[in-house]
Design brief:
The complex is a heterodimer of chains A (about 280) and B (about 325). Chain A has ten helices and twelve strands. Chain A has about 280 residues and is of the alpha/beta class. In chain A, the strands form three sheets. In chain A, strands 6-7-8-3-9-10 form a six-stranded mixed β-sheet, sandwiched between helices. Chain B is globular and about 60 Å long. Classes of the chains: A alpha/beta (about 280), B mainly alpha (about 325).
Chain lengths: ~280, ~325
């Protein structure tokens, strides 16, 4: 039994997850700690998105259990879960004529009772979400008319309007230019530090992950290879095994975290690529 | 209230008044007023012929409009229509089987046969598209398949059947409301009004259904259950409409399309699609009376150019 004070908020215990005949994640266990920013990294097709979808309750594991504060999430209704946990897929799709405001207001769905009017709390959550993502000025624009980066921020705003304490984000920095990537990561950092949110995000840039996240988890072939603070995880050895990239680890002169400088991809990358049907 | 919706309601009132007035014996607005006050001749014309017909046109149009809005959200395709759920094909097959296959006078059973055929066909599509859950695209593909199959069997029946029976079946398949009366209208209302009300209560769930599975699921929508409920509602509405008026094409596609621009919210879209559907069918029926054609033959005349326009406007997408 997990105590309420336990640092682990969301936990996958010995889960095997797959589609049809193929297992993507094999007997994996991971604990997502309360009030921390955990970054999930790994090569294409290693099962990151699959793991995230299972943690969000969208994909039932074939075996093993996923629990929220010790309670199996399978026992919660979809709406109950959605009030605690929000999930932003890698490529979310909306009806093409929806405006940013209408999109963000959808985030309130799990909080609204049938036929209940729009409440002050709903309005406040949406306004705050739009402000945090700098989308107020674009609120009345159709989603389809925005740039890739603006669209990504609109989706993040919807996720924030959901007011869940856990955010699962699948590659939130894709489509963003460097400035917007840094801005988004800084926003995630603030949400953790100031609002006590728990974040698990799939990221691709290991140096950005090291700079902004509290913990890194490396996933390879459906199993956690390495997990811990950036300084423990970012080593030439782990990166060679997980990403098949050779390079060196430097001391980041601007931040108290290591910096990985890649040199060359190792030959075995082709073997890993055969397995990239689902990521 | 939404300005576009107000305009639509006004247009419906105008078309309905015109329909009440126009006929072999014209009635001025004061005659309509007189009928309400108890003038016997005007009351007979209005009460037994025109009023039930117009009320049926309005209600059938509203059902088709809402059924279309549901289909477009559930199938996540702005060009989807209730016909994709096999409603019209199934209803036509049901009626063809009854009229051509059964002996004796069966005219009064035609609405029931139509509704049963529609419901069976929609259920078959839903069940066949099920594979550990349904997906929008599989519903569409299976729907096209079942539609082709029911169409083929109906054609076969019309080739093999007695020519007089075939003629009656084909007349029904043209889609018309000329034989509306209060009894049929009461049946239609009994089926459709609760379904319309329930659909409106599910407006928010419809909003989310139009998103992809992961987004709507992560926001707490019980996707499979909601899709089943919405498909059932759509079948009920379109099935009741087809039972009352025969297969009327394009209203279910056009009405929700025309009101898309008013709002992305189904709380507005649903009533707007209902009013727009009512307007389309009442207008088609009015024009149909002027040129002596059933309304079901006129809706494609509006529908086909509109599809052309849609494709033309999206030619660069």
């Amino acid at each position: 039994m997990i105590e309420p004070t336990s640092p682990v908020l969301l936990q996958a215990h010995d889960v095997t997850i797959g589609y049809q005949g193929r297992n993507v994640v094999n007997r994996l266990s991971i604990g997502i700690e309360r009030g921390r920013f955990t970054a999930l990294l790994g090569p294409n097709g290693c099962g990151k998105s699959t793991l995230l979808r299972a943690l969000a309750g969208l994909l039932a594991p074939k075996s093993g259990a996923i629990s929220l504060e010790g309670q199996p999430i399978a026992q919660l209704s979809r709406k109950q879960l959605a009030r605690r946990l929000s999930f932003l897929p890698q490529i979310p799709r909306a009806p093409d004529d929806i405006t940013v405001r209408d999109l963000v207001e959808q985030g309130r769905y799990p909080h609204r009772r049938p036929l209940a009017p729009w409440s002050a709390a709903d309005r406040a959550a949406c306004t705050e979400a739009l402000e945090l993502t700098h989308m107020v000025a674009l609120a009345e624009r159709p989603l389809a008319a925005l740039s890739g980066g603006q669209r990504q921020r609109a989706w993040l705003a919807m996720t924030l309007a959901q007011s869940a304490d856990i955010l699962l984000l699948d590659e939130p920095t894709t489509y963003l230019d460097m400035a917007h990537q840094l801005e988004l990561l800084a926003l995630l950092r603030r949400l953790v530090d100031e609002r006590g949110k728990t974040i698990l995000a799939v990221l691709h840039d290991i140096n950005q992950a090291g700079q902004f996240a509290d913990k890194l988890a490396l996933l390879s072939d459906g199993a956690i290879t390495s997990i811990g603070p950036p300084a423990d995880v970012i080593t030439t050895e782990t990166i060679r095994t997980v990403f098949h990239v050779d390079g060196m680890v430097l001391v980041n002169p601007m931040a108290p975290c290591p910096l990985f400088l890649p040199r060359t991809a190792l030959a075995s990358i082709d073997a890993a690529d055969d397995d990239t049907m689902r990521s | 209230m939404n300005r576009g919706l107000t305009l639509l309601v006004l247009l419906v009132v105008i078309v309905a008044t015109l329909s009440l007035s126009w006929g072999d014996r014209g009635l001025a607005p004061q005659d309509i007023f007189a009928a309400l006050q108890g003038d016997p001749i005007a009351a007979i014309i209005l009460g037994t012929v025109r009023a039930p017909r117009i009320a049926t046109a309005l209600l059938v149009g509203a059902c088709l409009g809402v059924a279309g809005a549901i289909t477009q959200a559930v199938m996540r395709n702005p060009l989807a229509e209730p016909g994709l759920l096999g409603i019209n094909g199934g209803a036509s097959l049901g009626v063809a089987l009854l009229v051509i296959g059964a002996e004796g006078a069966v005219g009064h059973l035609m609405p029931l046969a139509g509704f049963t055929g529609a419901a069976l066909s929609a259920t078959a599509i839903y069940v066949l598209a099920w594979r550990g859950g349904t997906s929008s695209i599989r519903l569409i593909l299976v729907g096209i398949g079942i539609g082709a199959a029911t169409g083929a069997v109906t054609s076969l029946l019309t080739v093999l059947g007695d020519i007089r029976d075939v003629q009656r079946a084909l007349a029904w398949m043209a889609g018309s409301i000329y034989n509306a009366d209060w009894t049929r209208l009461r049946w239609l209302a009994m089926w459709s009004l609760p379904a319309l009300a329930i659909t409106w209560c599910l407006a928010r769930d419809l909003d989310l259904s139009a998103f992809d599975d992961d987004v709507s699921g992560a926001l707490g929508l019980p996707l499979q259950a909601m899709r089943a409920v919405l498909t059932a509602l759509c079948t009920l509405l379109a099935g009741a409409a087809v039972a009352a008026a025969g297969p009327i094409s394009f209203v279910g596609l056009l009405a929700p399309q025309l009101v898309r621009g008013l709002s992305s919210r189904h709380a507005i879209r649903l009533p707007a699609a209902a009013v727009c559907g009512a307007l389309l069918l009442a207008s088609a029926d009015l024009v149909g009376r002027l040129v002596q054609l059933p309304a079901g033959l006129l809706t494609p005349l509006i529908g086909v150019p509109f599809i052309g326009l849609l494709l033309w406007r999206r030619r660069n997408d």
